[in-house]
Write a structure and sequence with these properties.
By secondary structure, the chain is mainly α.
Length: 155
């Protein structure tokens, strides 16, 4: 990166110096040549950035896969991760809500155990847990698919 910055600085200084001495036609040719040189520098930086990103992506741990704490590669991945976390929050608030006693509006473990023993509660919680697991699965699948698309660009 520092090498690219020094090359860009050199190109800028060179152009400023040459613009004082060259005629307009020679200056246009110089601009075209320096523009292609800057494009090459940009492409090199992009390739290094992609290489860095893909090498850091390979190191996804079990905890990152479990809780989806890695950086998604597409907007679909971001949507799936956000929905996953909303689902987790919904289940946590639902568990707290199941423990509220209707008469006193206070949390009680006996009410929580009674509600969790109900077949309707288990069926509803099972449905939401299945949805969360599917969201996690699709987020990981999207990540793997996008990562494979980026892999050929590694220099």
């Amino acid at each position: 990166m520092e090498e690219a910055q020094s090359r860009i600085g050199f190109i800028d200084n060179y152009f400023q110096l040459q613009s004082k001495f060259l005629e307009e036609t020679e200056l246009m040719a110089l601009k075209a040549h320096l523009s292609s040189e800057l494009t090459n520098i940009k492409n090199t930086i992009d390739a290094l950035f992609i290489k860095l990103e893909t090498t850091t992506r390979k190191k996804i741990s079990f905890v990152q896969r479990l809780f989806l704490t890695f950086r998604p590669l597409s907007w679909i991945g971001w949507v799936l991760v956000v929905l996953f976390y909303f689902g987790i929050m919904f289940i946590c608030f639902a568990l707290l809500g199941f423990g509220l006693d209707e008469t006193t509006n206070q949390f009680s473990t006996s009410t929580l155990v009674k509600e969790l023993g109900s077949s309707d509660t288990l069926l509803g919680m099972g449905f939401f847990i299945a949805v969360i697991i599917l969201l996690r699965y699709f987020a990981l699948l999207d990540y793997k698919r996008r990562y494979k698309k980026l892999s050929p660009h590694i220099a």
